[in-house]
Write a structure and sequence with these properties.
The protein is mostly beta strands and 526 residues long. 5% of the residues lie in helices and 62% in strands. The N terminus is likely disordered.
Length: 526
């Protein structure tokens, strides 16, 4: 499969490069990281080739995972007419409608208890995009057709997609055409092995229409999903064999409406959605699964306000959303004040209660934080922050707080020294960390970084340290569970169409090594 895609790209290369704006990109990397957003670290090699012109975008990405001895691949071809009125996208692609409540691209989860990942984007018009990371697990595979019509200040778009992903179920489930697994569980089985080796096709289709002016955007979207075996017979999933209430789901739909307003200072958006599931057999009724999101952004040089409110109910069944389904209610509020050019301060508060669709115990959390940042220059700064978290799960309450202080000093525009420290307290236990780093910048485009961190961890506690390659890593942090030291050395080079990077990380305590990794990557555009 990888060879066929590369041969196709080589054949297309002369044609695409006949246009003056065409460019070719090739990249390869070896690293220990997450392949995608699911936070399972593995060693892997990823190689990619892509060719882009004004109207053509095609590429292939291949991943080989060492521990699992498994190959994965994604490839795509996107073509548009010269006037930009129509386009077609074939291969592996991501779908992102509205605010991601029903259909959204998966994002890396932050396990840090004091971090908040904004789950609600501002809403855009890029509903479908090629998947370029080599992992077919969280993307669709099929085709998209799109059209756009422009009338002065008004743009009307219509996009439709069809996806067929091969997944696997247990052998006897295919003949019975019933499985007790959820759609999410089935989707994770991208290769047949062990006890589940019978292929099943996960079929999803739908579309989105939108109207957008300079300040207002309106969207309506819909999708339908079902599961079929190799003989094209429908499979019931989530099957409950209880004789008193036997039944399962034969299909899942999702539809919603998104609206947004934006100007130089204000951004408002709202989305309401429903995800009804069709039940076959059984006496239990399916609740109306509704959800909604509201967001406000006030963006002024002296004041930035963010407000997000989310509410879902009725076991919100949204396996293709940016966060997954379940019942949830959340409110997030933050403010940043910039009274002087170099001084920033503010705070945030998050209140969230979730009930997982997988049946886990309800979880409540309240996080509040304050910060102060002073910029002496572009690279010299002083940062102070304090955060506290109160949580409850399975009637068990916990409280944590963390204090951080960081500073960086620039010397002659060539050297930058940084130092940071943190103190974490959880149920009376205290953990600490202290870090120091040195960046050296060369005029040739070469950058060298060395960082040493020391952690004093109390028993049954942990501290999340920034990843050695947080800018490109799917997982943005390293979980430190033991009193130890962490050394990270890296170098990057960028010049014209070539960029390369190498890094070495080791976590150790005396003669014991907890973590060691070497990463290299290179990318060339011509």
């Amino acid at each position: 499969m990888p060879g066929r895609a590369l041969i196709l790209l080589i054949i297309l290369h002369p044609l695409l490069n006949s246009e003056s704006l065409a460019e070719t990109e090739m990249a390869v990397e070896y690293r220990r990281d997450d392949i995608d957003y699911n936070n399972t670290e593995r060693y892997f090699v990823r190689d990619m080739i892509g060719i882009r012109s004004e109207n053509i975008d095609t590429g292939a990405c291949h991943v080989y995972m060492h521990e699992k001895k498994e190959h994965r691949m994604t490839c795509h071809l996107k073509a548009a007419d010269p006037k930009g009125r129509f386009y077609v996208l074939a291969g592996s692609f991501n779908a992102d409608f509205g605010a991601g409540l029903v259909m959204g691209k998966k994002q890396p989860a932050l396990f840090d208890q004091f971090s908040y990942r904004q789950a609600v984007p501002d809403g855009g018009t890029g509903f479908f995009s090629p998947c370029r990371n080599g992992n077919p697990l969280y993307c669709f595979r099929g085709g998209v057709l799109g059209a756009i019509a422009r009338f002065d200040d008004l743009a009307l778009t219509a996009d439709a997609f069809y996806s067929v992903r091969e997944r696997f179920i247990y052998n006897d489930e295919s003949s019975r055409r019933k499985t007790n697994a959820s759609l999410n569980s089935i989707n994770s089985r991208i290769s047949g092995k062990d006890s589940f080796s019978e292929p099943a096709r996960m079929i999803t289709l739908g579309g989105v229409v939108s109207a957008a002016t300079r300040h207002v955007t309106l969207q309506f979207f819909y999708y339908h999903s079902e599961l079929k075996n190799s003989r094209n017979k429908r499979i019931i999933w989530g099957y409950d064999p209880d004789p008193m209430d036997a039944g399962g789901l034969k299909s899942l739909d999702g539809f919603g409406f998104f609206s947004a307003y934006s100007d130089d200072y204000i951004k408002l958006f709202a989305e309401c959605a429903c995800t009804p599931a069709s039940r076959i057999f059984g006496k239990r009724s399916i609740k109306n699964s509704r959800g909604g999101i509201f967001g406000l952004r006030y963006l002024h040089p002296a004041l930035r306000l963010v407000l997000d409110c989310k509410k879902t109910s009725g076991d919100f069944n949204a396996p293709f959303s940016s966060e997954g389904g379940g019942t949830a209610s959340a409110v997030f509020l933050s403010a940043t004040v910039n009274p002087w050019k170099r001084l920033f301060f503010g705070g945030s508060a998050l209140s969230r209660r979730t009930i997982s669709s997988a049946g886990y115990a309800p979880e409540s959390v309240f996080i509040k934080s304050v910060f102060l940042r002073y910029l002496f220059s572009k690279s010299e700064k002083l940062i102070f922050s304090y955060s506290a978290r109160d949580g409850e799960k399975s009637e068990k309450k916990n409280r944590m707080s963390i204090f951080k202080l960081a500073a960086s000093i620039n010397a002659g525009n060539t050297f930058t020294f940084s130092i940071s420290g943190s103190r974490k307290e959880s149920t009376g236990k205290k953990s600490h960390s202290l870090s120091g780093g040195l960046n050296i910048f060369f005029t040739s485009g070469l950058k060298f970084t060395c960082r040493y961190s020391r952690f004093w961890i109390n028993k049954d506690d942990q501290i999340y340290a920034p990843s050695r390659s947080a800018g490109t890593a799917a997982g943005g942090s390293i979980n430190i569970k033991n009193t130890s030291s962490l050394v990270s050395i890296s170098s990057t080079y960028s010049n014209k169409g070539l960029s390369a990077a190498a890094s070495y990380t080791q976590q150790f305590e005396k003669k014991r090594t907890y973590r060691r990794s070497v990463e290299v990557s290179a990318k060339m555009t011509f």
